[in-house]
Amino acid sequence: MPDTLPVHVNREELHGLEVPNEFETTDSFEIRLQNHGESVHVHLHLDDALSEVARLDANNHHVEANSTRSVTVDVVGSPPARGKLKVVTAYGATTRYVDVVLEEPPEEANPVAVDESLSKPQPRERPTQTTQMGRSNDLPLGPDVLVLALGAAALLLAVIGAVVIDNTVVLLGSLAVLAGVLVAMYLLIE
């Protein structure tokens, strides 16, 4: 939020102006024209020193009765700078000056850059087994490994049984176990 320079118009008398003697800021700021009476035209002017680093969109501003109007002063140059802001009402009958000091912004102590991707949930990685050497062999843990190990053991027993017993019923049972293991592997892959 930019700093605000308060200017009170018509508070004590018609075309009266109340401004601070000095205003310090580090960046663009707002001039808040607070009118306490009849509608009025206010003229704002930056002197040569301030005009080198700051800009006003317009110099003349109409402020309705009992209302507030904000005027932005954009700092486009590099501070530090010092100059005067001239505030005029009643076509020059009332004039006030504000010493404006533009200071360098304080340096941030090692700002931390946060990437947008950190605000989004990260996908969870499946844990891996680590060997004694500290290297990962990327074998997934959990029920998938157990199903594959039991399926391989069942397939091995079925093949051994079919070879040793040499029976047609055992051979058909071995083929059924093989089909079950293949279906389980297919379902695990998807």
Protein model, in words:
With 190 residues, the protein is an alpha+beta fold. The chain contains 3 helices and 12 strands, in the order βββββαβββββββαα. It has helices at 48-51, 143-165, 168-189; strands at 3-9, 17-18, 22-25, 29-35, 40-46, 54-56, 60-63, 68-75, 81-89, 94-102, 128-130, 136-140. The protein has a 5-stranded mixed sheet with strand order 2-1-4-8-6, with no helix packed on it. It has a 5-stranded mixed sheet with strand order 3-10-9-5-7. The radius of gyration is 40 Å and the shape is rod-shaped.
E-strand count: 12
* Estimated radius of gyration: 40 Å
Taken as a percent bin, the fraction of beta residues is 35-45%
Per DSSP, the total helix count is 3
CATH architecture of the largest domain: Sandwich
Mean pLDDT: 83
Instruction: Tell me the strand order in the biggest sheet.
Output: 2-1-4-8-6
Helix-residue proportion: 25-40%
| Main sheet characteristics | 5 strands, mixed
Low-confidence stretches: none
CATH superfamily label of the largest domain: Immunoglobulins
Pfam families: DUF7524
InterPro entries: DUF7524
Region (Disordered): 107-137
Transmembrane segments: 145-165, 171-189
